[in-house]
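Hi support team,

I'm filing this because I wasn't sure whether my run with 3-iodo-tyrosine finished correctly. The job status page said complete, but I'd like someone to confirm that the output block is well-formed before I use it downstream. Pasting the exact inputs I used:
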Amino acid sequence: MSNKFILYEDFITYNNLEMLTRSREFAEYLKRRRTVRDFSSEPVDIEIVKNCIKAAASAPSGANKQPWHFVLVKDNEIKHRIRITAEKEEAEFYSSRAPEEWLEALEPFGTNPQKPFLEEAPYLIVIFEQKYGFDEKGNKIKNYYVKESVGIAVGMLITALHYSGLATLTHTPSPMNFLNSILNRPENEKPFLILVVGKPAEGVKVPDIDKKKFEEVCTVL
Ligand code: IYR
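And here is everything the job wrote out:
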């Protein structure tokens, strides 16, 4: 690794009016994103999804360790196995593991142990966080701020997919370690979440919920 610095020529500069317009329009655009739970099985060009993963992999990370791995699942048999196992875990969650308060919080979303979207959507992206990495000689190396780094990358991934015209669902069956064996991932990797990707089913409905007001989420000092 060198500590050479290079001129940052890729940065694009805008004037104030351009920045105002771009920021307002982007916020409005991003606000149109909704999590959907019903997906069309219409095929989607895999290159679109790969481009979005490239966008996500450009995320900042602690000491640039890039402690993530994206498994892009298109194979129906693998999707089926993920669905069956996730539903088993979720059945446990809904019937006994989840405290009453949690189930109440989930009520507006109408979620239940059935996860047909895991098979119906054309793609699942399973994101793994790398608790530690390896150098060229195979020695363990430390990763830093792993959760923060992977969270940022997933945020960028969701944004890129929305921008490309695809809908997503962030799905976190609990526990998720079964994904290591189904997807054949090594011990240093831990499943972070499953992102279900595709076009929304025709006539899809979403919960009638809203985001907090700006003043509630931001304090200017
Ligand atoms: N993992 C479960 C429960 C669940 C939990 C939260 I927090 C959600 O926002 C939605 C669902 C499931 O996927 O059903």
